[in-house]
Design a protein that fits this description.
This protein is of the alpha/beta class. The protein is built from 18 helices and 28 strands. Helix 3 packs across helix 5. The protein binds adenosine-5'-triphosphate (ATP) and magnesium ion. Magnesium ion binds next to loops.
Length: 592
């Protein structure tokens, strides 16, 4: 379907005065020092993520407000107020203190979206421990590997996950001193070599521990999604809280009365930065759904929980699209005022689908585990160019660079001033949530910088209006007959076809072209693979993209291989196509 290239916003699109209303003026006036001043800071100086997120509010008028509301299919909803969350996280910090776990100790959490996980993360941050979340659906091997790599000293998990996934691997995690177990049935556990968390919490005082972190102290160690290779551990500091706060304000437009839902699991950086930290910093009430994706359930939650700001991911949106627009229209969303997405390129079709299904376009934003927070975004007040990631947020200076040598160390680059040129997306270092290193890989960290420019590994272009357009990951770009082809453009064109639910595009070695564009597609409900459909798709793509860019081959797959955080793994499509080893598949979604 042909659509206009822009979604114009008017005053009628804004339910509340937007936090970012005058882009140029607010970007000019912004400084990270002033953003830091919007937070309280620790009484004796210093900065701590959990203090700003919880304790600050618990000591004021928000103490009684719901911070987190947990819902599950077969259990009553459970709410934790800011006051209660502060007390429980104090208690958890006291538990760690009692165990001699102090500043800098590495603590891992492995659990579903249960209250104890949130309490443990916040309590551990107060005690100065460095927190690493692990996705609860990981198998034993990826869990053990990450704990070993991260030299984990404490693991907080549930009794069921421990017996299924950790117990047999314990010998491979020599640094692990304490395993704190949550009994999934709400009772207690007596598993050998572990501690029962509920019992420890019951006797711990709920007095605040003395917090001694500074902005430069390590706070979080996040493993990347493993989309392009083995996951990397990215280290973040407490100072990141300034970015979390500023981006919650500008990119998510959080207002005090919002009811907010981030669908990302806290096992990934989005679920931590924007599922836990940013909404709490803004004193809003967050929904936490303990269940897995279910289109009907999600629409029901958006409606019944009166969600006003929703942060989700392209993979979820594509799954909702697959279920059909009628499912969305069986509900209504009068409270919903802003929908945002991150994690993968958001096809223009998905942006428009939001308007048709939910009454609101989806606002794409871009960031990475390494950046610690949202860098480039579409925000409520501004026109959307579907397919664009939006513009750099206040405090973020982005640019497009060209490499001066193919392989140089350190890399040498030139900033491309003119618009509409494809190159690597780079950011001027200096925003507070920038990662401070890759775990045990200083050389790789250094390779990410050219002077003060952080090189993202993503290719993009900036248009004359300052909007950034994702082209593809540097590793995924296809070189065909002298053209550089970004898989996103090809995938988006295929997604416009009524039968296509998802598309993943790779370059396949070809003696004449260098690389040939090959697409893998999965179909929407009600469509079946056939030779006629394949030819129709090839013709559609050729019409939309031209012969040089359109795929030469199209294959149908029931589902595309994805990371557990929902990203299409093009490297696996390629490895399978070429019969090459699959490499690290620790983050591959089961059954993919
Ligand atoms: P790995 O680094 O291990 O290969 P990963 O890069 O997928 O995994 P993350 O840090 O979770 O790990 O993801 C960040 C990447 O996701 C970005 O570099 C970019 O390639 C992609 N991404 C995130 N948001 C967007 C977006 N809005 N549009 C396009 N791509 C995006
Ligand atoms: Mg990456």
């Amino acid at each position: 379907m042909d659509r206009p290239g822009i979604i114009r916003k008017t005053a009628a699109d804004l339910r509340l005065p937007p936090n970012l209303a005058d882009y140029e003026a607010q970007c000019r006036a912004f400084s990270w020092d002033r953003a830091r001043a919007a937070l309280q800071g620790l009484p004796g100086g210093g900065l701590n993520i959990a203090f700003e997120a919880v304790d600050r509010h618990a000591a004021g008028p928000l103490a009684g407000r719901t911070a987190l509301r947990f819902v599950a299919r077969d259990a009553p909803a459970l709410e934790l107020s800011y006051g209660e969350l502060a007390r429980q996280s104090h208690r958890f910090a006291q538990v760690l203190r009692g165990l001699g776990v102090g500043k800098g100790a590495r603590l891992f959490v492995l659990a579903g979206r249960i209250p104890e996980l949130y309490v443990a993360v916040l309590g551990a941050l107060k005690q100065g421990a460095v927190v690493t979340p692990l996705f609860s659906a990981f198998g034993p091997e990826p869990i053990a590997t990450r704990i070993r790599l991260g030299a984990g000293e404490v693991l907080v998990t549930t009794d069921a996950l421990y017996t299924r996934k950790v117990r047999a691997m314990r010998a491979q995690m020599p640094t692990l001193r304490h395993v704190l177990l949550v009994a999934e049935d709400g009772g207690s556990t007596n598993e050998p070599d572990t501690l029962d968390l509920a019992a420890l919490m019951a006797v711990a005082p709920d007095d605040a521990v003395a917090i001694s972190t500074t902005a430069d102290d390590a706070a979080l160690l996040h493993f990347t999604s493993g989309t392009t290779g083995a996951p990397k551990g990215a280290l973040h500091v407490h100072g990141a809280v300034v970015t979390h706060h500023a981006t919650g304000r500008y990119a998510l437009d959080l207002h005090p009365e919002d009811r907010y839902w981030c669908t990302a699991d806290p096992g990934w950086v989005t679920g931590m930065s924007y599922g836990i930290i940013a909404p709490l910093l803004h004193g809003v009430s967050s929904l936490v759904d303990r269940e897995e994706f279910d289109a009907e359930r999600w629409y029901g939650l958006l409606e019944q929980e009166r969600i006003s700001v929703w942060y989700t991911a392209p993979t979820a949106i594509r799954m909702l699209m697959k279920a059909g627009v009628e499912a969305a229209r069986r509900h209504s969303y009068p409270a919903l005022r802003f929908v945002a997405s991150v994690g993968e390129p958001l096809n223009p079709e998905a942006v428009w689908w939001g308007k048709e299904a939910l009454g609101l376009p989806i606002h794409d934003n871009w960031w990475q585990t390494e950046t610690g927070g949202i860098m480039i975004a579409n925000t409520p007040a501004f026109d959307i160019k579907p397919g664009s990631m939006g513009r750099p947020l206040p405090g973020i200076e982005a640019c497009i660079v060209e490499h001066l040598e193919a392989v140089g160390e350190p890399p040498r680059v030139r900033i491309v001033e003119q618009p509409d040129v494809e190159g690597e997306l780079a950011l001027h270092a200096g925003w507070p949530s920038m990662f401070r290193g890759y775990l045990d890989n200083e050389a790789r960290y250094r390779k990410c910088f050219a002077g003060d420019l952080y090189l993202t590994g993503d290719l993009a272009r900036r248009d004359a209006d300052g909007y950034y357009w994702f082209v593809g990951r540097a590793d995924d770009v296809i070189k065909s007959a002298g053209h550089l082809i970004g898989p996103f453009e090809v995938e988006s064109a295929l997604m416009e076809h009524a039968a296509v639910a998802e598309a993943g595009v790779i370059g396949k070695p070809d003696p004449v072209l260098g690389e040939m564009v090959k697409a893998f597609v999965s179909l929407k409900a009600g469509h079946t693979a056939s030779e006629a459909l394949r030819l129709d798709l090839l013709a559609h793509a050729r019409k939309r993209l031209g012969a040089a860019v359109a795929p030469k081959e199209i294959a149908f797959l029931a589902t595309l291989p994805r990371t557990r955080s929902g990203k299409i793994m093009r490297r696996l499509l390629k490895a399978r196509e070429l019969g090459l080893p699959e490499g690290d598949t620790s983050t591959l979604e089961a059954g993919a």
